[in-house]
Amino acid sequence: MSVNKEFVKFDKVDKSYDGKVLVVKDLQLDIAEGEFITMLGPSGSGKTTCLMMLAGFETPTNGEIYLDGNAISSIPPHKRGIGMVFQNYALFPHMTVYENLAFPLRVRKIPKDEADKKIDKALSMVSLQGFAQRMPGQLSGGQQQRVAVARSLVFDPQLVLMDEPLGALDKNLRESMQYEIKHIHENIGVTVVYVTHDQSEALTMSNRIAVFNDGKVQQLSSPDELYEKPVNSFVAEFIGENNTFAGEVSDISNGKCKVKLAHADILANPISVKGKGEKTTVSIRPERALINPTDKMDNIHKGKIEEVIYHGDHTRVRINLLGNPEFILKVPNSSSNLDIKLGNEIKIGWNSDDARALDPK
Amino acid sequence: MSSENKQILTTDGIPLEVSLKKAEKKNKIKAFLLVAPLLLFIIITYVFPIGDMLMRSVDDKMVTEMLPKTFKSMEKWDGDELPPEEVFEAFYFDFQKLIEEEREGKLSTQLNYTKNGFKSIIKKLRRKSKSFEEGNYKEQIMSVHKRWADVEYWRAIKRRAPAYTYQKYLKGVDMFENEKGKIVNVSEDRRIHRILWLRTLEIAFFVTVFCFLMAYPIAHLLATLPMKYSNLLMICVLLPFWTSLLVRTASWMILLQQQGIVNDFFVMIGLVTDDNRVEMMFNKTGSYVAMTQILLPFMVLPLYSVMKTISPSLMRAGKSLGGTPFVAFWKVYFPLTIPGIGAGCLLVFILAIGYYITPALVGGASGTLISNQIAFHMKSTLDWSFASAMGLMLLSGVLVIYWLYNKLVGIDNIKLG
Hints:
The complex is a heterodimer of chains A (361) and B (417).
Chain A: E1 8-16, E2 22-31, E3 36-40, H1 47-55, E4 62-67, E5 70-71, E6 82-85, H2 97-107, H3 112-125, H4 141-153, E7 159-163, H5 171-188, E8 191-196, H6 199-205, E9 208-213, E10 216-221, H7 223-228, H8 233-238, E11 243-253, E12 256-260, E13 265-270, E14 279-284, E15 290-291, E16 299-310, E17 314-321, E18 324-332, E19 345-350, E20 356-358
Parallel strand pairs in A: 3-8, 3-9, 6-7, 7-8, 13-20
Antiparallel strand pairs in A: 1-2, 1-4, 4-5, 9-10, 11-12, 11-14, 12-13, 14-20, 15-19, 16-17, 16-19, 17-18
Chain B: H1 2-5, H2 16-58, H3 61-66, H4 68-74, H5 85-100, H6 104-114, H7 118-129, H8 137-144, H9 151-159, H10 167-172, E1 175-177, E2 183-185, H11 193-224, H12 227-242, H13 245-256, H14 261-268, H15 284-307, H16 312-320, H17 325-353, H18 357-362, H19 370-379, H20 384-408
Antiparallel strand pairs in B: 1-2
Helix pairs in contact in B: 2-20, 4-5, 6-7, 11-12, 11-15, 11-17, 12-15, 13-15, 15-17, 16-17, 17-20, 19-20
């Protein structure tokens, strides 16, 4: 059985609300069947608009969206057969949990005994058996969330959209729900398009993440690749923590480049720079720079400790390094790190491979 | 352990429980004092007038006090044939006293309410009684006018004996207690109140329906439009509200009259011919149109306040789950607006059922309501007790509707804002 690689396809989709500003620009995005894909981005980046276009509540200004090979722009939302979980759950407050789940089945004229089976199954999937006769108002936030998930799945849609479904939950509940949704996805193999602005949520749950900014997909790749190999400075900045140096490429050879900063030169991995004289932003993850480098790292510099913050399992150290007073290091709390004291000068080193020379900010 | 059993004392040595109760009592008094003005206001402006109205509607002491001796002597009379001499004698002495006090005119008015024809025979009796001789009053009174010899008229007097009466209520539904004490309908050509009651209910009902049909889309629009447009629309809804009721009614008169703008327009587009203009005023149409317009905001506002709280994502959820827009509306949106519908309908219906000025001005003969009849009896016939009786019937009708509503929808479901 071959997996449909283009189960959902955004083909050159533009969207503008006022005819002046494009909130989605020339979107090209393929989603494979059974995939869990997350649209991640700051607010106003166009991710929710994309979701709404897919659900049918907004129409693309230009371009076409295909679902399983069929153009769907002219199909009204209720005929698309796409499950959706809304930001505030959108449970029908005047119906019991059972009636909420029965709604999509009734409108599809599924016989009652079959519908009951499906509802039981959906409720057990989110471990809410025995809650069928409750009203949504009698449930906690997490339970309402699960009912919303169950309702979006009860009619066996091929595609489920989730619009920041965990936004209203507290941190612990949110984390446990992340796993729960991920497991449900793994168990039933439905295609999920998930929208969030929470990067840790995106990293834990998704097969692939599409990072949105300014109406465009900045990078579409798996969570690890996104974190380890951001393709531009926005992604590097948006996902995880990041230390940056702004400079100019002074030499480029052998897959390495030399970047000229105000007072020093550093070696970096040229990602989006092509030649000499280009402006660039060099991005280094905090955990990739080490204190007191022992092995042969090709970047070793001295910096002054400005701030030390204890975090339990690790310590964050802020260092003034090469003119950047915001250089952050994450140091695991083990007995070997002794020299971390405020005001000390220490040596910092990293591999040029981990220093990615990206587009200038 | 001993410290737990000990009474807890405050710093000044009073048991905590006692001082807590003291503080609570103080708070209660404070709270009561805050409510007191409102309570007083309601008692003075609401409970007293309605109580007085209730008393008036059943009060029939006037005649009882005017003819005390007569009624006492009538106690034994069975009313089959003319009363005995002692009744006539008692009546003569009561009547003389009334003449002295110049109150015989009031008596004639009162007795005339009970039976037509008393006015003239009492005038005549007053004139003739000056020359009455002592003794055998029966003969003398009967000789004044042949009606005084008619047992019907004496029965009519006897019917006024009780200090309290429910006659006015019977009259309100076109019934009366006949000579034999049976409750019967008045003759068909004199039944006006029942028609008025039914018309009042009918007009109130349809005005409520029209208001609902017009207000629902407006309220929906108000609740869903972006702020800058919805504010403007809200002002449009409220603008008539801020205009005097009389001005609005008068402007409807200008619009609806036969030479009015609406008729001019109909003639212009050729809907009607010039000499065949539609009568839209001084009939039910006038009442419907003007009352619907005037009461519309009372429907829009509760609906709007409820719709405002319904998240737009609910309709979206309904659609995304496969419901057509109509199903999503009917199964999801509409049930959630029921509290607003209930509040709006109840409000409009209750206001419409007691509406006065508008039907009086544009209703004409076939568009007036029971409240106009009440006003008529207050101002023109001065039969305040009858007006009070009808007012109370209206009030109890409203209470019944309220009760029914509570049974059907539940008053807790109501939402005014």
